[in-house]
Design brief:
Layout (H helix, E strand, L loop, with lengths): L2 E5 L8 H14 L4 E5 L13 H10 L3 H7 L8 E2 L5 E4 L8 H6 L7 H12 L4 E5 L6 H8 L3 E7 L8 H14 L4 E8 L6 H11 L15 H8 L4 H4 L4 H17 L2
Length: 261
């Protein structure tokens, strides 16, 4: 059965999109079939796989997430192949900036995405569907959470990284009132610098959270990530031997272990 995983954090700069992009690619490299959904108006997940010219072409053609949600159509008609085998995407567009307005007048507006995903999920062509959520807490993110089986919360290992985390968890609990199957899979620590004292403090704080899993593999700061982004490629494919690529691959294996239990 296809499993849907959202990557969400209401704080920007948490490494959310980079984690979603690399976990999705790592899953494909491990032989899984994966669909990525770019739910953010910034298009960062889309340009993790396509150059800007291609990203703008998706927006102009209407073959993007915004069109599907506005017209409440199945996402099966909005799938785009990435350069990687077994890895497809529903690209985003800057028009997603108006998605809250589009959802406001819709019937059962918190579950529009779930309905648009229904056919794709039930068809079972993908082992996993990964959704990159924007760093906000509104009706659209509520849609993403309600459409998901699991939520992964990437957290930057910095003094500001924990800011707003309690609000994120409270919002997920509100989503569970509508969609009880939605489960927090765990917290993934990103942008870690083991030389900094606050890194250990961040880990200790996260470990102390009751009832919330902290993934054992964290991802350290690595310039290879920035170089891969410049080339519109996930680092796990761009430079497989880099530290961050190895860490993202290990994190992906850990995620699969928990999801497949």
């Amino acid at each position: 059965m296809t499993k849907v995983i959202a990557f969400a954090n209401n704080k920007g700069g948490s490494g959310k999109t980079t984690t979603c992009s690399n976990v999705g690619c790592a899953m494909a490299l491990l032989g899984k079939t994966v669909l990525l959904i770019d739910g953010d108006m910034q298009l960062n997940l889309t340009i993790s796989y396509f150059d800007e010219e291609q990203a703008h072409a998706f927006a102009e053609s209407g073959k993007n997430l915004f069109t599907a949600i506005r017209e409440e159509r199945s996402l099966s008609g909005f799938l785009t192949h990435t350069p990687f085998e077994g890895l497809d995407m529903v690209p985003s567009t800057s028009l997603m900036s108006g998605i809250e307005f589009e959802l406001f007048s819709k019937w059962q507006r918190e579950t529009v995405l779930r309905k648009c995903l229904k056919e794709v999920k039930e068809r079972g062509d993908y082992d996993y569907i990964l959704i990159d959520a924007p760093p906000t807490l509104g009706v659209w993110v509520m849609n993403i959470l309600c459409a998901s089986d699991f939520v992964i919360v990437p957290v930057e290992a910095s003094p500001w990284g924990l800011f707003g985390l309690a609000n994120m968890f409270e919002f997920i609990e509100k989503a569970r009132e509508i969609s009880p199957q939605t489960e927090i899979l765990g917290i993934a620590v990103t942008k870690a610098d083991e030389r900094k004292k606050y890194f250990k403090q961040t880990l200790e704080t996260l470990k102390s959270l009751e009832g919330t899993r902290l993934f054992g593999q964290y991802v350290r700061v690595d310039s290879a990530v920035e170089w891969s982004q410049d080339q519109s490629r996930p680092v796990v494919a761009f430079k497989k031997t880099s530290r961050s690529a190895v860490e993202y691959m290990n994190l992906t294996k850990e995620i699969l272990e928990y999801v497949d239990r």
